[in-house]
User: What shape does this take?
Amino acid sequence: MANAATETAFVEFERVQKSYDGETLVVKDLNLSMPKGEFLTMLGPSGSGKTTCLMMLAGFETATHGAIRLNGTSINQIPPHKRGIGMVFQNYALFPHMTVAENLSFPLEVRKLGRDQREAKVKRALDMVQMGAFGGRRPAQLSGGQQQRVALARALVFEPELVLMDEPLGALDKQLREHMQFEIKRIADNLGITVVYVTHDQTEALTMSDRVAVFNDGMIQQLAPPDQLYEAPENSFVAQFIGENNTMTGVVKEIAGGTCVVRLDSGDEIDAKPVNVSRVGERTKVSIRPERVEINMARLRADAHTLKAEVLEFIYMGDIFRTRLRVAGNDDFIIKTRNAPDQIRLAPGTMIDIGWLPEDCRALDAN
Assistant: This one.
């Protein structure tokens, strides 16, 4: 799918392709535009083409076909150091023989700024990432989180309009990674910079982004704000890749208006929203999020669909209960319920009714 190019596009890919061997396309006919000030994440599994797109935008890879534009100007033939783009990598890429301040000063020296200007910009950038007291230290004297802050400051020190980040938090532990997600987003919002961020971590993408482009097999499968991506996946790949998801396979029996009837392989029939199906007899995967499944039937509308389920596993996870069920022949059907005083704790072997609203169940492609 493509996002139509507009006159206000700041970053734009137009029919971009990339092949390393002249035969296999790792990026296939990419069309993507983003406005100034947007935080866009390219999300996908390894080999999906997301990092290649970032490297073509940075200038470290050359597009085989198509145009890449920055602020309306083609940058296909402009070398990386003349594109004025800030970069943050997973391995930090700091010069070990330089102090923190010298690392930040280096890109300013390349741009021929005077000493007073350099010092002022270095101080501002370090203060921005709360590293003002560390200017005299070497990278080896810093923790991983501190090094990542310095790498971020170095990318911002010459005040670029566009910053590219390639898996920048991958080497950090979970708690620090989550903290840095909010820090990077806060700094980007405060400065009004445009960010293209690459990750395979869906939580990072949902937490930080204005929009997310989900890549698979060299193509954007869906481009949307995080809530739309999660609540309204357009195909079965996006539904499975973003968040936890229950799927059941079957055949479309009826389609009428905004609803279809699906006969599951188990023989059960359910109502679903026809998203990626168009005809009776078509194979489909129906998708429903674990938190949309209800075990308290009193909370559901009269038109809710219900099925019998057997509890296989009940796991206490602090803020939620995660229950694995056998539903319509599927032994990996998950529901998530809030940890509340009135919430039932279910013992394995218990038979229960579960239900959901038809609009929360999406009939997608069978692939």
About this structure: The helical segments are 50-58, 100-110, 115-128, 144-156, 174-191, 202-208, 226-231, 236-241. Confidence is low (pLDDT under 50) at residues 1-6. Residues 68 and 74 are 6 Å apart (CA to CA).
